[in-house]
Structures are given as structure tokens and as C-alpha cells.
Amino acid sequence: MDKKMTGILLAALLLSSCSTPPAASVSNINTQSSAVQITFSWWGNDDRNEYTLEAVRRFEELHPDIDVRCSYTEWSGYQVRNDVRMASGSESDVMQINFAWIDQYSPDGTGYYDISLLSDVVDLSTIDEAMLEYGMKEGRLNALPIAMNAQTVYINRGLYSSYGLDVPETWDDLFRAAEAMKGDVYPLSMIPKSAWLFCIAYAEQKCGHTMFDGDGHLAFTPDDLKLMIEFYCDMINSKVMPQMEYGDDYGIGSGRTAGVVAWLSDAENECAVAIAQGDDIVTAPYTSMSAAGEGWYVKPATMYAISDTTEHPKEAGMLLDFLINSAEMAELQGLEKGVPLSRNARATLEELGMLDGIQYSAFERMQEPDTINKMRPVMENSDMIRAFQNACNEVLFERSSSQEQAELLYRQIKAISG
Of the four listed, 135, 253, 255, 295, which is most buried by Cβ atoms within 10 Å? Predict the structure, then answer.
């Protein structure tokens, strides 16, 4: 694609994918001609947009020589725009990114600015070295994780108790719960990505090895994938959960399910209705047949990066430090992006009494197991998840055997992962 066509496409996307009118999506508080202008982009809902714009306003008050131009939209529009911007070299100076994008846009580590070169303006000591590793690529610090994320099991303890059941800890507990609930409600519900990762956890525990190797290549055999498919079908047939396609219709506050598997970062949204109803919602141990945590994975909930082509790395770094470490941003953001990794930000939230609730409970749960693994970006590949979903349905509706579908799924995943 030539530069002219890229520019036309980019302009069209910028006009079509904004969730607010263009004028409302730009912050331009400092208008003096001597101010250095940098750009900042993120995705999110109206609440996130509102508090982030307020944070930028406060940053500009502290730094009247820096003018921050902001652009924002909902997730799908942001992802489309990001693809075009990264391809055309027109990305924002500071940008919110997805963990998987480091591999996608920076395979050799040069796709984003090396933040370690900005240690004079970005305080990296507030984040543990182990957490900074998630942003490293080929020896360069490509991004800073804001918070960590893991699939978490949320349980309506009161509903489980009404059937004489404790909070489930093992796979067998879930099947016993299904027998006790007799189809009146489901022990769990989950959307396709959660179901995919849930079945990976089961299969890794059963097989004794990970699905992907350290380079992201498939390490499962067709027999291992057959185990995943059959386990999912067993859960559906035993009424442990509704089909993954209908997960969104079975929220934990709907009265149709006694639990849900969802991201830590989604805890408040997933459980809000149930908690408002007065339900006793708790986090369950990571489902296991042995050591809790085996087969389960953690990743950055979201990250900030700086453009490798920025003309103002110092000013971009100053904004990045404010977003990660400042008391102002911590108070405005709260736990909306998850429990912050920055010790400075967490200290602010602790002083304000904001480190509580179901999301913080999920964060504490994530700290417990020693065996929880670092997620590989390939595990969130949407084509793989769709292929798994299709394979499960072919077996579930008796259109094909689990062996046939496992062999097909093996070939599909191999083609994607290499």
C-alpha cells in the first residue's frame, strides 16, 4: 500500500471509528506556541475516557510546556486504527497497547521505544523486575505493564451453599455441583476465550506438560487436544456450564448460573449486578486436580508504550511516568484497569482505602499459587479459539468424532503457531 492510500485509509478510520466527535476526543489545554506537543491514545468506555482526560489536564497543569493531544475510542475501533497507524508510522507518542502486540509489532524489539533509555524521567524502580520482563523484547523495554490479569473463578457462595455445596476447588467438585443443582442453575458459565483457557488448564494438568513451548509452538499432541474437546463436551452434557456461545447470557447475577470464569480485570463488571443484589460473591481457588495454579496463566491486563519514532521521547516519558506512578492518576483510575503494579500507585490507593472489593480479592488470589504461568500471546489467538469452538460443536452435535476433530484442530493450530 503506498503512502497516499495509507493516508486516505487512516483518515477514513479516524473519522469512522471514534466513539465521540473528533473535537471531543482531543485535549489541547496548553496552547502556547512554545509548548512541546505530544500525542496520547487509549481505548475504553466513557468512564475511562473521562478520568483519563482529567488526568491529562492535571499533567498539563504541572507541565505547562507540554501540550498533550488525546485520541480515544472503544476497543474494536482502537484496534483497527492501531493496525493502520503502526503500518504507516503515525502511531501516538504514548499509547495503550495489548500485551500480544509486542510480538505482533515488535518481533525484533525495535517496534516500540526502549523505555529503559528514559530512566531519568520514568521511575522504573516502582515495578518489580519480574513484571518488567513482560515488556521486554530482545533486550529492549518495549512497554510497561499497568496491572496483571488472570482468568479467575467467581462463585456465588450463597447459591452454592443453598445446595449444600462448598466453594469448588477441583474439577470433580464442579461435576458434583452439577449433579446437586440438577439443571436448575449451572455451576459455571464462560465465554469462548475463557472456556478455551479453562480447558487448557485441565488438559495441562492431566497431561503433565504445557500446550505451547517457550517459543509459542504447539507442544500438545492430537491426543492431548482430544482430551480438551472431550472435557468440554463432558461439561456441557453434565450441565456444568452452558455452551460457550451463550456465556454472555448467563451472568453471575442472572440467577441462571452460580459462578463465572472471567478476567480479573473484568471482576467489577462481571459481578456488579450480583453484588448489588446482595449476593455473596467470592473468588474460588484456581480449579485443579493437584497443585492450585498449574495450567493457569497470568498476563499484563494492559500496557503503555512509546512510539519508536517519537520526536519528543523525554516529554513522552514524563507523561508515561505520570500515568503509571502519580498519585493523581492512581486516585482517578482506582482499580478500573486492575490493581496497579506501581508501588507508588498502590500506596496511594491504600491510603485512600481503595484496595478492596471483588477485584482486589481476585488480585490477592492471583498472588497465591507458585505454579501460575506466564501467558504466551499465541494462547489468545482468535483463530485458534474459533477452531476449538468449531471442533467442540462438531463433536457435541455428533457430526464428527473427537479423534477426527482433534487431528483437524492439531493441523489448524500448527499452521497458526508454526
Answer: 295
Q: Mutual orientation of helices 192-207 and 222-237 as an angle, nearest 10°?
A: 120
**Contacts with 243 (C-beta within 8 Å, 6 or more apart), sequence order:** 236, 393, 396
Q: How do the residues of the chain divide into helix, strand and coil, expressed in percent and rounded to 5?
A: 50, 15, 35
The SS3 assignment for 185 reads: coil
- Phi/psi at 80 (5° precision): -65, -45
* Measured distance CA(291)–CA(371) in Å, rounded: 8
Rounded to two decimals, the pTM is 0.84
Could you read off the pLDDT of 9-58 as tens digits, one per residue?
A: 444 444 333 333 333 345 555 555 689 999 999 999 999 999 999 999 99
Question: Pick from 255, 256, 260: which is nearest to 195 by CA?
Answer: 260
In this structure, which topology does domain 149-298+366-417 adopt according to CATH?
A: D-Maltodextrin-Binding Protein; domain 2 (3.40.190)
Q: Fold identical between 3-147+299-362 and 149-298+366-417?
A: yes
Which class would CATH give 3-147+299-362? Answer: alpha beta
Closest CA to 71 of 20, 120, 6, 115: 20
Cell matching residue 305 = 508504550
Find residue 255's DSSP bridge partners.
none
CA distance 74 to 51: 15
Domain boundaries, the chain: 3-147+299-362, 149-298+366-417
The pLDDT-based confidence of 289 (bands split at 50, 70, 90) is confident
- 137 to 7, 106, 110, 141, 144: CA distances (angstroms): 29, 8, 8, 6, 12
